[in-house]
Amino acid sequence: MGKNLDINVHHLTRVEGHGNIVVRAVNGKVEQCALNIVEAPRVFESMIEGLSWRDTAILTCRICGICSVGHTNASIQATDDAFGLKITPEVLAIRKLMMMAEEIQSHVLHVYFLAAPDAFAAPSVIPLAASHPDVVVRALKLKKIGNVVCEALAGRHVHPISMVPGGWSYVPPKSALLRIKEYLQACGKDIDATVDIVASIKDKFPNFERQREDVSLTCPDEYAFYNGNLKSSKTGVIDYHDYGKFIKEKCVEHSTSKHVHNVEESLAVGALSRFNNNHPQLNARGQAAARKLGLKAPCYNPYANNFAQTVEIAHCFDEAMKLVDQLLKMDLSEATLSPAVKPKAGRGVGLTEVPRGTLVHDYTYDEKGVCTKANCIIPTGMNLGNIDRDMQKYVPEVINTRTQEQIAHDLEMLVRAYDPCISCSVHLLDVKWV
Amino acid sequence: MSGKPRIAFFSFTSCEGCQLQVLNCEDEMLDILAAVDIVNFREAIDDRHDDYDIAFVEGAFSRQCDRAELEHIRTCAKIVVAFGACATTGGLNVLKNFRGVEKAMKAVYGDRAGWYETVPAQPIEAIIKVDHRIYGCPPHKGEFLEVVKSLLAGRKPQIPDYPVCVECKLKENVCLYHKGQYCMGVVARAGCTAWCPSYGGRCYACRGLISDPNSRAAKDILNEFGLTVEQIMGEFQLFNGCNDVAKQY
Question: Residues of B numbered 207-226 whose beta carbons fall under 8 angstroms of chain A's beta carbons: which are they?
């Protein structure tokens, strides 16, 4: 007789948004194994249509509080692209610094607050505040980098104010840049300690592999976050405007979700995909972190996304330092930052790497700059098919060696490793399992 | 069990940015954890309980199946705080009401729109009684801390009921109308320290309108600066679509 499993994790915790894991196995045979997205529909695309170019980013950054800067970045790049706007090197450096700050904040939040409690067998970070206060204080200090940077440059991190098409709507004073630099300088040791602590809990994550297609942006000059062309580990590099060639949506018979695929049944995006595709471009600090964590490309263990995030924390930290130094040498003034926008009819595409992977915003404007058509593709949505297939391979592998409780916990950790941002993803997709 | 007040966080239709604003209180976090027991916070902790004193509810009401959960929260909590723009005004979600909910669903989900249940977005107050409100998209950390401190001290939180213009003047910002732009600061509820106008944005009244807004005068100002009725209504619809002002046309 084979084993029966009946796992139903209702409203998975320590993820953003509402999702359920459902697994049923009868007599050793897995009949059902899926992540069920139960977030309320939000229909963002329909709300974008009819908005002025001034408001498209104001609306779409509200798709997600955690990747608010990333959504703003994709949105304003789409508008820049549609109107043919050229930005100055000063604006580019500020936008990139905002992105680095958000990657650090989001990854720190995920690694310390959401994923690490599993390694310490704690239900949350709160008991760790008593048992490992130094770790929690460090986590808060590093997470704050996102707020220190974004408050100084754009007023706030959640729904940033000054990030607008064509430029930057606020002139940050030099004192603000110096404050950022001072704060970053005080964090260097904590970054190294973060790599050390993740290396020390590495063995707590399951050893599991499944071959996959990694998709991310790629850029000749740097490890791509801000922009780039689209790279698949299976089919090469294409111009970002043609993203639809790699990111294909298909209907799944047993699900109302459109899953995303290219050549395989599913594809993966996120920190591990970026690492697999672009690792030679990591800076020295990022390379050192990867060596310490023993992370080698291509890595096909989805749990290692936590380690790839740690590598990116180290990389982004040094990039942020470089960008601040660059900005301190620049002339930040209304002349170099103020946006000059002249709307014109046309389509614009903005792709960027948010913490959870490649994000697409695609708008069509009329001659007055009113949005007539919009499409946003969210990384969590792109990963849903891959998460299901990981679970469907993992469960049969361990069904006879691990208890139902252990398997449920492993699957929670698996979903969490992707760092899903569920309220982001529901604007255009939903999964119903019957 | 300690005698500390038990706090719960819940989210409905939203971006969960309000809960992130709580986590963004890095400097105060350990003090908050010392003063209260957080018993529900799905975004950060595993535990779930029905036994709590204060519930912070983020997000708008946008589907009937959430009604029972909201009512359950009301039964469990002694104090319910509507947390953020979606919960207090319906927030941006209300835009879909103007697009026509059925049309909006069809545009996004195509011929499978019928699989998903949704109704026009509303503030949670449309469903349950709310004791206090924390406004804004996102809420200001200072206001969140003021409400927590007040409730722990048993006093009424001090939330401004005067327009953003007051705070903007105190910040010595150049008025956006004088820069040829428009702004809702004239009728919008203050308390954000004129956040957006201070960083090159305009006020779109994410904190809702003050309780007695001079909307006729506001419309006159907007008219004076050459805006069309559609643009003005667009401004009201962005965050205040459930307010009667937005429905006057």
Answer: none
Question: How far is the C-alpha of B137 from the C-alpha of B128, rounded, in Å?
Answer: 21
- CB interface of B with A, residues 93-112, below 8 Å: 93, 95-96, 99, 103-105, 107-109, 112
CA proximity to A55, closest of B199, B202, B193: B202
Q: What is the pLDDT of residue A255?
A: 47
For residue A345, the tally of other CB atoms under 10 A from its CB is 14
> Which chain B residue's Cα is nearest to A139?
B26
CATH code for residues B6-153: 3.40.50.700
Burial A274-295 (b: 16+ CB within 10 A, else e): bbbbbbebbbebbbbbbebbeb
Could you tell me which chain A residue has the CA closest to the CA of B93?
A42
The pTM score is: 0.92
pLDDT by residue (tens digit) across B145-158? 999 999 999 999 99
Least CA distance to B113: which residue of chain A? A256
Residue A369 has pLDDT above 70, yes or no: yes
Helix, strand, coil: what percent of chain A each, to 5?
A: 50, 20, 30
d(CA A192, CA A429): 39
- Residue from B194, B198, B204, B186 nearest B241 by CA: B204
What whole-number distance in Å separates Cα of residue B217 and Cα of residue B210?
A: 14
Task: Count residue pairs from A and B with Cβ separation < 8 A.
Answer: 169
Of A44, A51, A159, nearest to B137 by CB-CB distance is A159
**Total residues found in chain B within this entry:** 249
So where are chain B's domains? 6-153, 164-247
> Is B115 in contact with A432 (Cβ distance < 8 A)?
yes
Q: How far is CA A14 from the centre of its chain?
A: 15
Spatial neighbors of A144 by CB under 8 A, at least 6 apart, are A105, A183, B26, B27
CB nearest B96 (choices: A47, A55, A423): A47
Q: Collect all residues of chain A within an 8 Å Cβ-Cβ radius of residue B11.
A: 423
Identify the bridge partners of residue A216 per DSSP, sorted by sequence position.
A231
d(CA A162, CA B201): 6
pLDDT, tens digit, for every residue of A117-160? 888 877 777 778 788 888 989 999 999 999 999 999 999 999 99
Cβ separation A68–B17 shorter than 8 A:
yes
CB distance A13–B109 less than 8 Å? no
In chain A, where the domains are located: 5-425
DSSP-assigned letters across all residues of A118-147: HHTT-SBHHHHHHH-HHHHHHHHHHHHHHH
Using alpha carbons only, how large is chain A's radius of gyration in Å? Answer: 21
Q: Tell me the chain A residues in contact with residue B40 when contact means C-beta distances shorter than 8 Å.
A: none
For tokens 């050893």, name the residue. A207
Would you identify the CATH topology of the domain A5-425?
Cytochrome-c3 Hydrogenase; chain B (1.10.645)
